[in-house]
Amino acid sequence: MLNINxxxxxxxxxxxxxEKELVAEAFASNFIxxxxxxxxxFEREMATHTGIPYxxxxxSGTAATHLALRHLNIGAGDVVxxxxxxxxxxxxxxxxxxxxxxxxxxxxxxxxxxxxxxxEAIQLCTRQGRKPRAVIPTxxxxxxxxxxxxxxxxxxxGIPLIVDAAEAMGARYKGVHSGKGAYAAIFSFxxxxxxxxxxxxxxxxxxxxxxxxxxxxxxxAREPLxxxxxxxxxxxxxxxxxxxxxxxxxxxxxxxxxxxxxxIFSAYQKALGDIRGVSFMPEAAYGKANRWLxxxxxxxxxxxxxxxxxxQALEEHNIEARPVWxxxxxxxxxxxxxxxxxxxxxxxxxxxxxxxSGSAMTDSDVERVSEIVRKNLLNQGKD
Length: 383
Description:
Blueprint: H1 19-29, H2 37-50, E1 54-58, H3 61-71, E2 79-83, H4 92-96, E3 100-104, H5 115-127, E4 134-136, H6 147-154, E5 162-164, E6 172-173, E7 176-177, E8 184-188, E9 201-205, H7 208-218, H8 241-252, H9 254-272, E10 278-280, E11 287-288, E12 294-298, H10 307-316, E13 322-323, E14 338-340, H11 343-351, E15 352-355, H12 363-377
Helix pairs in contact: 1-8, 2-8, 3-7, 9-12, 10-12
C-alpha cells in the first residue's frame, strides 16, 4: 500500500546510527563553539576518505571557494572561468573578490564543463589581454568533470583548477574520489546533500600552504600572538565542533548513501525509461556518479507535456520536485557577464526535472513518484 499522505522531499537529511553519540560526546567535552576535537577528527577522516591530504572544515562550500580564490590573490581586473550550469554559490565568491566571470557551457555527454568550450573561453580571454586566473568546473548532480582533460588545458598555462565537488561526495573519477588531483576541491554538507552537517563545507587540497593560509583567514586572520593582532582581513568561516560531530557520523555511512541513490536512479530509469521522449542524465564512462539527484529530460519534440507540468502534478500529491539549475548566464544578476556557448545548458534547464532522491526513500516511495510521472506522461506524445 502506497502512503499517499507522506510528504516526499527532494533530498532530505538521512541520519545514521552514530551522529547522536558523537554530538553527545561533543557536549560532554564542552567544546560547543567553533573548533575542537570533532573538527580536527572530521578533517583527518575527510583526508583519509578522499585521499586529499589537507582538509579544512568550514561553514559552507561557498566559504571554501572564497578562501581558495583569496589565497590566489584573485581580485579586481582578474577573470575566472566557471561552469554556467551550476548553483550560484559556486561562482559568487568570484564577485566577492571583485573579479569578473566568464561562463562556460556544458558537455551534452556529461552535463559538466565542456573542455572544448573551455579552450574557446581561454582563447577569447587571451585575445582580450585577460589571462584567466582560475577555472571552477562543477561536478554536477554528483558526476565528476573530466578532470584529466580540463587539467591538460589549464596546467600548461598555469591556471589553477578549483573543482566544485559540492554535490559529489562519494563520486569517483577513474577510481579516485571526486576533487582529487585538482589544485583545490570544494565540498558541501548542506542539509540537502548526500551527507550533511546541517550546514557546512570543506576545502581540500594537496597544497599545504593553501590550507594553512585558508585556516588563518577562516579564523579572522588572527596572528599567533597572545593578543588580537591582524595584518590582513579574515572571515568567520569555521565549522562548529558540534556540527563536525554530525559530519563524522555521516561520513561513516557515505558509501551506503551512494549505493542507495544509485539504486533509486536505476529504479526511476526502469520505471520511466521506456516512455518515448524521456531520458535521464548520462553517466560518463570515466567515472561513477553518486546520483545525488535523479534528473530526467522531457523531449518537447515528442511530448506535449513539460517539466513544470510534471512538477505541479507531483506537488498536488505532496511530492517535491525541482527544475534543473537555471544557467548562470541567464541569471539577471550576471546579465553583464561573458559566456561561451550556453545552448546545451539552456536545453537541459528547459527540459530537465529533478525527482525526489533522498537515500531513505523506500521502493514504495519511488513507485509512488513513478506512477504519477508515468500517468502524466503517457498519452502525451505528439502525433
